[in-house]
């Protein structure tokens, strides 16, 4: 396991059932499996690498109603998931359209790094998510 790599991410959501349905659709397509036993029954999905590393995403119900997520206020701007290649990004975009997800930006190349190709979408609370193929990160060992 890489020291300092992320262990898990807890997301506070307005409507736990609605968000669980959304993440329950997208996360398995990205290689995550349901694992509520790892979060004391909370909706949780985990992905593992072949070397003992794991990363989990857990949903937590908000204590009070709040405004829509503002990615330009202090806090989380967005988070991104790796894709295997450009075709993987395109297939995920087609899947997002099938499930009626809120698409923010259709697949396109961006100038962040050479070959950066991504689709951007939002979860039910307006949190920006991304699926990206970034060839410059392939094969790096740190």
Briefly, what is this?
This protein has 142 residues and is of the alpha/beta class. The chain has helices spanning 16-29, 86-98; strands spanning 8-13, 33-34, 44-48, 54-61, 78-82, 102-109, 117-122, 128-133. The protein has two domains: 1-59; 76-142, Roll (2,3-Dihydroxybiphenyl 1,2-Dioxygenase, domain 1).
CATH architecture classification of the largest domain: Roll
The total of helices stands at 2
CATH superfamily of the largest domain: 2,3-Dihydroxybiphenyl 1,2-Dioxygenase, domain 1
- Write down the CATH topology of the largest domain: 2,3-Dihydroxybiphenyl 1,2-Dioxygenase, domain 1
Average pLDDT: 89
Q: Compute the separation of the termini in Å.
A: 13 Å
Helix content: 10-25%
How much β-strand is present in the residues?
Answer: 25-35%
Q: What's the count of strands?
A: 8
Number of domains: 2
The CATH class of the largest domain turns out to be: Alpha Beta
Low-confidence runs of at least 5 consecutive residues:
none
What is the CA-atom radius of gyration, in angstroms?
15 Å
Helix and strand composition category: alpha/beta
Q: Care to describe what's here?
A:
This protein has 142 residues and is α/β, with parallel strands linked by helices. It has two domains: 1-59; 76-142, 2,3-Dihydroxybiphenyl 1,2-Dioxygenase, domain 1 (Roll). It has two helices and eight strands. The chain has helices spanning 16-29, 86-98, and strands spanning 8-13, 33-34, 44-48, 54-61, 78-82, 102-109, 117-122, 128-133. Strands 1-4-3-2 form a four-stranded mixed β-sheet, covered by helices on one side. Strands 5-8-7-6 form a four-stranded mixed β-sheet, covered by helices on one side. A hairpin with a 5-residue loop joins strand 3 (44-48) and strand 4 (54-61). It is globular. The protein starts with 7 loop residues before the first strand and ends in a 9-residue tail after the last strand.
